[in-house]
Amino acid sequence: MIKNIKLNSDGSYYKTDVGDHKVSGGDEVLVETEHGTEIGVIIEPCCGKNILGESEVGDRNLTFIRKLGEKDKELAEKLAREAKTFLVECQAKIEKYSLPMELLDADLSFDEKKITFYFTAPGRVDFRMLVSELAHTFKKVIRLQQVGPRDEARFLGGVGRCGRELCCKKFLRGNLESVTLEMAGEQYLAQMGQNRVTGACGKLMCCLQYELEFYKEARAKLPGLGEEIKTAEGLGRVISHNVFASKVTVKLDENDKYLEVSC
């Protein structure tokens, strides 16, 4: 069986044959890559839809090994702690070469042969000398991965406007399709201004995706905005929806009176 996998080390998506192994979305698994053994996350369709286009899935040759067991997870946690110790040396070398980049985190591959350093930068960075020195220092394959605002928020963590830990830090595993301003419009939030629907990362909040289908289904059962309907007090036009109560607000034609009507 072919599954989509998001590799932890580069955040990219790939396909792999998991055979008869029972895995589902969100499961952490081990795969063999050309650079060694790495951990990835199974990505499955969101809301019944395939979230990945063909252009988004890489063609690297990944060989599925197994779903992470308890001992694997313990080792992965140990390696994660060890990877943190590499940050000090990497930061020192970044400062040595005065590189315009902000170091975020590090990842040590499961077989301990490769270290991936994650960073943000305003543009492209020539880090060839940095990679050379890091490889000489750590005696491992070095990968530097530039990430965007959403990944930066995931690495740094924080609290959203809802008062809860950021979804990208707490549980999201890349299994969410792109968030658009149209989604905010579907939920009557676009008119509140973009700053009200923007997350800590500066991008549209991921949670705009969570209730989108509910809003679409609820609105489909109500008269459309601008539609003329008959009420107990006469004809009027729909000017707003209350999807939670299955009601619409109507402006009556004769006296400009506003009336809330159950549908």
TrEMBL record:
In what residue span(s) does the PSP1 C-terminal domain sit? 62-147
> Cellular component per GO?
cytoplasm
PROSITE patterns linked: PSP1_C
What InterPro entries does the entry give?
PSP1-like (IPR047767), PSP1_C (IPR007557)
Question: What range does the record give for the signal peptide?
Answer: none
Q: Which PANTHER family match?
A: PROTEIN PSP1
Q: What is the protein name for this chain? A: PSP1 C-terminal domain-containing protein
